[in-house]
Amino acid sequence: MRRSGERSGAVGCLVAAVAAVAGFGVWLNGSRPGLRGSFEDQRDLSLLYVELPLMLLAFPALTLAARCLAGAAMPHGAGRGTRAAVSLLAGSATVLVLAWAGHMWLDTRVAPFVHPAW
Length: 118
What we know:
single chain; 4 helices; mainly alpha
């Protein structure tokens, strides 16, 4: 028989994987102009060694933290289904907010490559 701790750990790993994929997708979409280059083939390689690890590590860490905090904030009398739903909602909202913030950050970082100042 499976214990709820094992199931919770498997769900946590799945949430972390989904958040990492979302972080990579945000980075891939947002950093493309900076990696491609612009005028005279200028590239910003710090997008590879700063933003990529940040997106790949921060998205899962913050999503798991929000999921754990939401589960811990629930009263002990709440059912397992209610706890799971609240944790899932907190994790999903965290991924969405992080994706939005990541897009805004990368738009600011690659702005000189998209709209160079003449």
